[in-house]
Amino acid sequence: MRETTDILISGGGVAGLTAAAAFGSAGFRVVCVDPTPPVTRIEDEGADLRTTAFLQPSIPVLQAAGLWDRLAPHAAPLQIMRIIDAGGEYPDPRIVKDFDAADISDQPFGWNLPNWLLRREMVARLADLPDVSFRAGLATTALLTREAEAIATLSDGTRIAARMVIAADGRNSAMREALEIPVKTTRYGQKALAFAVTHPIPHRNVSTEIHRSGGPFTLVPLPDRDGMPCSAIVWMETGPNAERLAALPVAEFEAEMNTRSCHILGPLTLVSRRSLWPIISQIAERMAGERTALMAEAAHVVPPIGAQGLNMSLADLRVLLDLAEADRDAIGSAAMLATYHRKRHWEVQARVTGIDALNRASMMGAQGLRDLRATALNALYSVAPVRKTLMRAGLGVR
Question: Could you say which protein family the record assigns here (predicted)?
Answer without folding.
Answer: Belongs to the UbiH/COQ6 family.
